[in-house]
Amino acid sequence: MKIVSFVTQKGGTGKSSLAVSLAVAAAESGLKAVLIDIDPQSTAEEWYKRRTAEAPAVHSISWANLSSRLYRLRQQGYDLVIVDTPGAESHAASEAMKEAHFCLLPVRPSVADIEASAPTVRHLNENAKPFAFVLNQCPTGGRTSRTANARMTLQLLGGLCDPTVAHRSDHVDALAAGLGVTEFSPYGKAADEIRAVLQWLTARLRRLDATEIADDEGGAIPLSAMS
Ligand SMILES: Nc1ncnc2c1ncn2[C@@H]1O[C@H](COP(=O)(O)OP(=O)(O)OP(=O)(O)O)[C@@H](O)[C@H]1O
Ligand SMILES: [Mg+2]
Q1: With contact defined as beta carbons under 8 Å apart, do 8 and 116 qualify?
Q2: Nearest bound ligand to CA 17?
Q3: Are 133 and 35 in contact (CB under 8 A)?
Q4: 213 CA → ligand 1 middle, Å
Q5: The CobQ/CobB/MinD/ParA nucleotide binding domain covers which part of the protein (predicted)?
Q6: Where are the domains of the chain?
Q7: Candidates 171, 173, 189, 197: which one to mutate for ligand 1, based on the most atoms within 8 Å of Cβ?
Q8: Which pLDDT band holds residue 224 (cuts at 50, 70, 90)?
Q9: Which residues lie with the beta carbon below 6 Å from any ligand 1 atom?
Q10: Per CATH, which fold does 2-209 belong to?
């Protein structure tokens, strides 16, 4: 079982939106996926209440119970746990980073978002925790140089999820409908981007599994479903 936490203390960068759509895409790909919401704002929990589909399950819990919940999920044979955290420096974010095999840091292509990620990056580096930025809400029109500049900066700052996610209304509408973007508009560009992020992430987890993660449980994600 692999644990991926969405962290950054900047609010509104897209942690919850990416977490729910990624969890849906993971479930669609055949992974036994669960989303844990430890943000008191409860965006993922509220999203789940609007759903009719049961998978992926959403567990809304206190950060203090994260470790014990992960233990139980491991016993239940989950492949992938995605953790959504508050957009502020908090015990919740620290605990999510500690428990994660890998962290994703959504940032918009803006200097303010990139600067605001510095304390999170410092914390991750100090704890030798693998991570990558995900560029989210990228402009789709002519201002692609802003995205290109952000890509370069984020690569230098520690690594970037290669597929980027554009600013698309599917994300807003899917969240409101209790759906992932791959359910809301399966053939849309937002859906393609989320599937590309999932594919990148699972490939990265597979690489970590081979080289960096000493996973006591020995439970590698059955990534055959992804390739
Ligand atoms: N790629 C995107 N395209 C368009 N809108 C987006 C995208 N990603 C997120 N949003 C919108 O941006 C807003 C903030 O997103 P979200 O709630 O996911 O951020 P967050 O990082 O979880 O915020 P917080 O730190 O408050 O928990 C929401 O209205 C969401 O619908
Ligand atoms: Mg959120």
Answers
A1: yes
A2: 1
A3: no
A4: 30
A5: 5-141
A6: 2-209
A7: 171
A8: very low
A9: 11-17, 39, 41, 43, 87, 136-137, 165, 167-168, 171-172, 175
A10: Rossmann fold (3.40.50)
